[in-house]
Amino acid sequence: MLEDSEDRVETGKVQPEPENRQQMEPSGQRKGVMHSWLRDLVISVAVSAFIIIFLYQPVRVEGTSMLPMLEDQDRLFINKIAYRLGEIQRGDVVVFLYPHDHEKSYIKRVIALPGDTLRIDHGQVIVNGKRISESYVPRRFVDDRSQPEMTVPGNEYFVMGDHRSISSDSRDFGPVDRNLIYGKAAFVYWPMDQAGVVR
């Protein structure tokens, strides 16, 4: 027995319902459902905005310079926080602002890091005196271009497309400043049959 409780309910007695109770409940329930739905929508939008602004951003590939890994019109997520927490590595596929027009973004693979020496001998890339293994470049995509030896300046990265014979990259516009690189290609989500991690 709970004598101090304000909301006592005694068994055996039934209090009559107010006449308008049945009319009020559906309206109240609807308001509750709408409030809950609106709250969930606002939270979802806020979380999505946070992810897009700070963590991952969807982008669309335009062009074929990253074939066969990325095709024209592929959709992928780029990781925007990866290089705030860690370092850019050789082999990473990065998204950056085109050095000569910051309204455009390019996607290429990092070939050489700041301080590396690099030369290209008839399509063969040599970094720090060693020919690098490039399994991501099919033989039919290799071109015959050469480039004299250079040292990549501090805070800059030498990038190239995987489809070497058609790619406009650091061989044309030079190494890319670290401040222009704003994301790491992470995951292709469209088309669905090509979905997967970018390597």
Features:
199 residues; alpha+beta; 4-stranded antiparallel β-sheet; 32% strand; disordered N terminus; hydrolase; Peptidase_S26
Description of the molecule:
The chain has helices at residues 21-55, 82-85, 170-173; strands spanning 56-60, 75-79, 93-98, 101-112, 117-121, 124-127, 130-131, 147-151, 156-160, 176-177, 181-190, 196-197. The chain has 199 residues and is an alpha+beta fold. The protein has a single domain (56-197), classed as Umud Fragment, subunit A, CATH 2.10.109.10. Strands 1, 2, 3, 4, 9, 10, 11 and 12 form an 8-stranded antiparallel beta sheet that branches. A 4-stranded antiparallel beta sheet has the order 7-6-5-8, with no helix packed on it. A hairpin with a 2-residue loop joins strand 5 and strand 6 (124-127). The N and C termini lie far apart (69 Å).
